[in-house]
Amino acid sequence: MDEFGQGLLIGSFGATAVLVYGAIRSPLAQPRNVLGGHVISALIGVFSYQLVGDIVWLAAALAVSTAIAVMHMTKTLHPPGGATALIAVIGGEPVHKLSYFYAFVPVGLGAIILIIVAVFLNNFAKNRRYPEFWF
């Protein structure tokens, strides 16, 4: 896989998939939380890396803790968002080259795709309804 392709792999989307397909009633799995939590966390992660990236442990701690606090403040708490912030710091050169673009592609676009697929699949069965709320 080329360097750009490596930057498009977001490991935290695996945990998001568990929420949007397996815990569809959880407030943490709702579209606002999924999209907002990932994008906010990605922006904070990139900022943290640019601020103190030479001290990786500090940048990682700053990224994750700040992402959690801001997700709480914005009511977009989504636990995989913490990992999205961390990936912005430790994701290596492919992610660092994307800079703030990382928050929109692959993170924002990937979250939107996950939500669209979740809406389609979860509402296909008669006994399931997703989302519980949009905003």
UniProtKB/TrEMBL annotation:
Instruction: Write the record's keywords in alphabetical order, separated by commas.
Output: Membrane, Transmembrane, Transmembrane helix
Ranges where the HPP transmembrane region domain occurs: 6-131
> Record keywords: Membrane included?
yes
Segments traversing the membrane:
6-24, 36-69, 100-121
The source's domain of life comes to Bacteria
The cross-references to InterPro entries, in alphabetical order and at most eight, read: HPP, TM_HPP
- An example Pfam family from this entry, by short name, is TM_HPP
| UniProt xrefs under PANTHER family | TRANSMEMBRANE PROTEIN DDB_G0269096-RELATED (PTHR33741)
Protein known as = CBS-domain-containing membrane protein
Query: Which organism's genome codes for this protein?
Result: Desulfomicrobium macestii
